[in-house]
Structure formats: structure tokens, C-alpha cells
Amino acid sequence: MLTLVLICVGVSVALTILFVMELVPRGNPAIAARLAELEALGRRDSQLPLEQRRRQAQTERLKAIIQAFGETVQERQADVGQVRQRLIQAGYPSPAAVPIYLGLRLLVPAAFVVATFMLLPLLGRSTLFTLVSTVYMGGMGYIIPTLVVGRRIRRRQKEMQKALPDALDMLVVSVEAGLGLNQALVRVSEEVHRISPVLSEQLALVNLEIRAGTPRDEALRNLATRTGLDDISSLVAMLIQTDKFGTSIAQALRVHAETMRLKRRQRAEEAAAKTTIKLIFPLVFCIFPAMFVVILGPAVIEIFKALKNF
């Protein structure tokens, strides 16, 4: 009897301990991992060399100065919305991107003008040449930020355009497998990251907007606005119409994916057809002169030798 009582008491104590452990709140593993990441980041920042930290501080001060100049220009700017849209398409979604961009368009020409006006007289150039060069460098400094942003937009759009047919194929497979459109977008954004990080980021933003309470049609329109790509705009219009009229999303996506693949093949054929025209310039300016020197050079030398005898 005593042994049975001891066994019952031991089991009761063990169950009590387990019950108390279940009541103790457990930490979220994701939060713990994020805290460990932030702690490691802070430790790494504190271990940076003094010179590197000084350069970072100087960069931040320079950015603050450019932003302050840009904010004064932004107050008088009429097309701030268009500038913000272009910067978003270029991959600068920060609210500080617009004043920094406007500040660069103001300070870069001024720096080029001052540097040209001070250096050319020291190099012994004439006054007229100095004035013309100053005006030219000022104009170049004004358009350089615009050229950089435009080039970045074109590069991002080209990357998304190449990856869009493959992303649509994965979207068709995900929808036909039984996933909803939102879950399919999340899955595609995870898988397409290997071939196009830009498209993956934009699709992930669509899911975040939907989870934040934005209607799906509005989130899709925002996707078209952020990318500025005609193929994505047509895809968004197709998805909105399909959702509005209640037709099959999988069938519409399959047809649209075939259209995107056809467009990609046509673009490749067009680029191959342009190759012959683009080869004219290196042929005329690089290859043909070398061939003329090799073929006609000995004959010209012999002609000169023959003419010397007369």
C-alpha cells in the first residue's frame, strides 16, 4: 500500500510540473530569431573600424544636406507625383528619395560648374572655351540624375519582362493545384526570386498590401503603377476583369501565359534581326580598315617603290 501511495504521489508531482510548464508563456521563435539577428547586427556595427564609421557618418551628413536642398525645391515643384512614380519604378520607394533626387539635380550642376570654372583657367584655357565648357558641364550635371534613374528603370523593366512568362507558368500551376490567387502570388514570389528579385519583390508587395486591408484590384493596379511595364499592366487588367466577371482564373492565366511566351519569342527574333544592322558599324570602323591595310598595304608599298624610280 505504501509503495502504491508513493507511486501516485510521484505521478501527481510530475503531472503538476508538466501543467505548470504548459502555463508558462513561451517565446515566439521568429521573434527570438529576429532579436538575435538585430543583436548580431548591432555587434557587427560596433566592431566596424573607426574610419569606416566616420565615412558612414559623413555620408549621412551629405545625404541630409542634399535632402534639405531638395525639400526647398520640392515645395515649388509641380510634378512631384510623376517624379515619385519614376523613382518608385527605379527602385527608390523611400519618401526621402524625391527630395534627394531634386537636391542632386540642383547640386550636381552647381558642383560641375564651379569645378569647371576654377580648373580650366588654371590649365591655361581661354575665356571663351571656359565659358562654353562651364555651360556644357552644367547641362550635363542637370541631366545625369535623370539619365541614371531612366537607365535603372529600363534595367528593372527588362529583368521583369524576361521573368514574367516563367512567373505566369508557375502562377497557372499554383492556381490549377487548388491555391487561391493570393496564396499563388505568395508562392510565385518565393519561387521567382532566383530569376528576378525585382519581380519577386513586387509580387510580395502585392500580398502585403492585400494583408494590410487593401482591395485586391487596387493592390494589382498599384503593381502596374510601380512597375510601369505594359505586360504587367495587361496582366493586371486581365486579373481584375476575371475577378469581376467570375470567369476561370486558371484558363485566363493559361491563355495570357501563352501570349507572353509568344511575345518573348517575337522579341528574341526581333533582336536577332537587328543584329545584322548593328554589325555594320564595327565592320566599317574596325574590321574593314584592318583588312584594307593587310590586303592593299603591300600593293601600295610596291606602287610607291615603283614611282620612286621615275
Helix and strand topology:
Blueprint: H1 2-23, H2 29-46, H3 50-74, H4 80-89, H5 97-122, H6 127-176, H7 181-191, H8 197-211, H9 216-227, H10 230-245, H11 249-278, H12 280-308
Helix pairs in contact: 3-5, 5-6, 6-7, 6-11, 7-8, 8-9, 9-10, 10-11
Put simply, the count of helices is 12
Beta strands, count: 0
**According to CATH, what is the topology of the domain at 156-267?**
Receptor-associated Protein
The run of helices and strands is HHHHHHHHHHHH
Unreliable stretches covering 5 or more consecutive residues: none
Rough shape? extended
What is the CA-based Rg, rounded? Answer: 32 Å
Q: What do these coordinates show?
A:
The protein has about 300 residues and is mostly helical. Among the domains are: about 60-150; about 155-265, Receptor-associated Protein. The protein contains twelve helices and no strands. It has helices at about 1-25, 30-45, 50-75, 80-90, 95-120, 125-175, 180-190, 195-210, 215-225, 230-245, 250-280, 280-310. The longest helix is centred in the middle third of the chain and has 50 residues, at about 125-175. The protein is extended and about 125 Å long. It starts with a helix and ends with a helix. The mean pLDDT is about 80.
